[in-house]
Amino acid sequence: MIVGNNVGYFGPYERMWRGLGDEADHWNGCAAGQGGIGIEADGTIKGCPSLATSLYAAGNVREMSIADIWRYSEKIAFGRVRDVEELYDYCRTCYYADVCRAGCTWTSESLLGKRGNNPYCHHRVLDLARHGWRERVTKVKDAPAASFAIGEFALVREAIPGAQTVPLPVRDPTAVHVAHRERTAAGGALPPRLKVCRSCDQYVWPHEETCPHCAADLAEVERQHAEAAERRQALIQQAQRVLGGIGAAPGQA
After folding, report:
1. What is the CA radius of gyration of the chain?
2. What pTM did the predictor assign?
3. Which of 11, 25, 87, 139 could make a disulfide contact with 116, Cβ separation 3.0–4.6 Å?
């Protein structure tokens, strides 16, 4: 089972959810128009099948080649040129802003009318909860009767019943822009790569020395993790030798 792209992002289980245990495979932002495209029954091309047709129809294969749509249509290229400057509210000041870029475009656009702020995020939920807050989505208007149409919703932030509320810390929006988007020879942008804190199992930027989530010394917990892995491997090898000896014929152990 693999979680959908609209389930996120960067909480303590990201390593298990996204990469099925492969910690190098973490969320790298919306893949629309970057790693895939969507095609509708009439030939309409979008960056992702889920995106609203009225907003993201990039062209039609009956009129243009897929290659030309990919190269020249702004409505499919948005994912390749966007940065944190289009983010707003919580997502604009989030620690993961430059790699996540507000998660799934369809989710944020369909909920709040524009991309750049996504409440369906595990990291966000946990951070708000630590300060005594939660968010809920309430429908304001039904979607019209059209394919991939979207309604209108409101995002309500409220105190968690019985919890002590603390104002969210004031975070500098400019401070989260930490990633240099390295370009390939073909001009594409390589996604940022984060590393795992061996203390809390959450992702951190490679330049960090102290984990911003649990305050662990990242080099020290990495050393301890490596030593523990070596001990486990030694025990596995020892057990394999013992079991191999038990199953061997007399005189061959």
Report:
1. 23
2. 0.83
3. 87
Q: Is the CB of residue 97 less than 8 Å from the CB of residue 176? A: yes
- Comparing 17-26, 43-52, 70-79, 228-237, the range with the smallest average pLDDT is 17-26
SS (H, E, C) the chain: CCCCCCCECCCCCHHHHHHCCCCCCCCCCCCECCCECEECCCCEEECCCCCCHHHHCCEECCCCCHHHHHHHCHHHHHHHHCCHHHCCHHHHCCCCHHHHCCCCHHHHHHHHCCCCCCCCEHHHHHHHHHCCEEEEEEEEECCCCCCCCCCEEEEEEEECCCCCCCCCCCCCHHHHCCCCCCECCCCCECCCCCEECCCCCCEECCCCCECCCCCCEHHHHHHHHHHHHHHHHHHHHHHHHHHHHHHCCCCCC
- Please give the structure tokens belonging to residue 224: 């301890």
Fill in the amino acid letter for 83: D
